[in-house]
Amino acid sequence: MSRNCELLTILQTLQTFSDCDITQSFSEGDSDILLVSFSKEYDSFIITQHDSQISYHDIDSALALLEHVLLMNEPS
């Protein structure tokens, strides 16, 4: 399964189980790179990187940001 499909599956799972208040973390070593959750109240994905939060109402935009940030944090 490609990374794109894995990330899409994660986002779809967060959206499907939004009643459960699930947060997916992406880490490198001991530090979190990203935290991702889905807010049922606001019908949006909440992506936290360091101290900033961004929300996206559509899954494609959330997926694009995840891919971008994770690609930038890959070892060279």
Instruction: Write the CATH homologous superfamily.
Output: Protein of unknown function DUF1797
Radius of gyration, in angstroms, nearest whole number: 12 Å
Write down the CATH topology. Answer: Signal recognition particle alu RNA binding heterodimer, srp9/1
Question: How much β-strand is present in the residues?
Answer: 25-35%
CATH class equals Alpha Beta
Main sheet makeup: 4 strands, antiparallel
The number of helical segments is: 2
Approximately how much helix is present in the residues?
A: 25-40%
In total, the number of strands is: 4
Write the element-wise H/E pattern from the N-terminal end onward: HEEEEH
CA distance, first residue to last residue: 22 Å
Structural class: alpha+beta
Parts with pLDDT < 50 across at least 5 consecutive residues: none
Overall description:
This protein is α+β, with helices and mostly antiparallel strands and 76 residues long. It has a single domain, classed as Protein of unknown function DUF1797 (Signal recognition particle alu RNA binding heterodimer, srp9/1), CATH 3.30.720.20. Helix content is 37%, strand content 34%. It is built from two helices and four strands; from the N terminus they run H-E-E-E-E-H. A four-stranded antiparallel β-sheet has the order 1-2-3-4, with helices on one face. Strand 2 and strand 3 form a beta hairpin. Helix 1 packs across helix 2. The two termini are 22 Å apart.
